[in-house]
Every structure is written in C-alpha cells, then in structure tokens.
C-alpha cells in the first residue's frame, strides 16, 4: 500500500515541476507591504493578478517611468540593501501574486507602458540582478492597485 501511494505521488510532483512549479521554493521578486507581501508568481496555481506591457502609450492604463537615480523614484530596487524585516517577503495567506502576461487578458488588468518620459503614474529605479525593470513595474503597479482597492472597501 505504501509503495502504491509513493508511486502515485511521484508523477504528480513531476507534473507540477513541468507545469512551472518548483520542488523547493526559490526567492522570487517580492515587496513587503506590512503583514502582506506581493510576489511575482512562479506557478499557475498561485492565482495571480495579471499585468501586461505595451510599447504603445495610447493603449496603456498605467505609465511607469524608469529613472536614473534612487532619490527620484517612488519604488527602488537595489541588490545588497538590507531590509528592516528579512521575513517581509515570506509567503503567507496574505501574499498576493502577480503574473506578467504576454497579452492583455481582462479589461480590469493593468497594461503598463515603461518609458523614461516624465509624467508617469509611478517612478522606479532598478539596479538588481534578481529584479528586472518589468518585475519592479509589475509589483509596484499591482501593490498600488491593491491599496486603492482596499481603500475603496473601507
């Protein structure tokens, strides 16, 4: 009986890995927000919020400016910086996941336009090997959207 149970779980584990999951969770781009965190999704079952990117500013619903210095940014990502709470990105029931889609999936999903032009909704500075500029933009837009939704429900 034990052998049968073991034999039936191995294909399920392999299917999960092939589907985009991980046997051992690795650090993925994340930002802490109080007790919650926002993290780039690594597996399809994480029920992520979806964002997409566009090269057409007319099609965008959110504009994110990439700035050259950290003091100009609303959101900064720099490798090697120590955070106040090293567990701020631990996965908990309050963790929200963000998925970057190749195409726009739903009308309610943000479409992000990255540029260096001023007048954007958010400004990001990224100097990291772990975070891409798109990761940072996806997280800050999703976090801002989550805060606005929470304010509306009060």
Give a short overview.
With 154 residues, the chain is α/β, with parallel strands linked by helices. Helices cover 24% and strands 27% of the residues. The chain has 2 helices and 8 strands; from the N terminus they run H-E-E-E-E-E-E-E-E-H.
What's the helix and strand layout?
Blueprint: H1 2-18, E1 30-33, E2 36-40, E3 49-54, E4 62-66, E5 75-78, E6 96-101, E7 111-115, E8 122-127, H2 133-152
Parallel strand pairs: 2-6, 3-6, 3-7, 4-7, 4-8, 5-8
Antiparallel strand pairs: 1-2
Q: What does this molecule look like?
A:
- 24% of the residues lie in helices and 27% in strands.
- By secondary structure, it is an alpha/beta fold.
- It has one domain (29-152).
- An eight-stranded mixed sheet has the order 1-2-6-3-7-4-8-5, with helices on one face.
- The radius of gyration is 18 Å and the shape is globular.
- The N and C termini lie far apart (53 Å).
Percent strand equals 25-35%
Radius of gyration, whole Å: 18 Å
Number of strands: 8
The total tally of domains equals 1
The assigned structural class equals: alpha/beta
Strand order of the largest sheet: 1-2-6-3-7-4-8-5
The rough form would be described as globular
Order of helices and strands: HEEEEEEEEH
Main sheet properties: 8 strands, mixed
Termini separation (Å)?
Answer: 53 Å
Low-confidence stretches: 17-26, 148-154
Helix content percent band = 10-25%
- Helices, by number, come to 2
Output mean pLDDT: 77
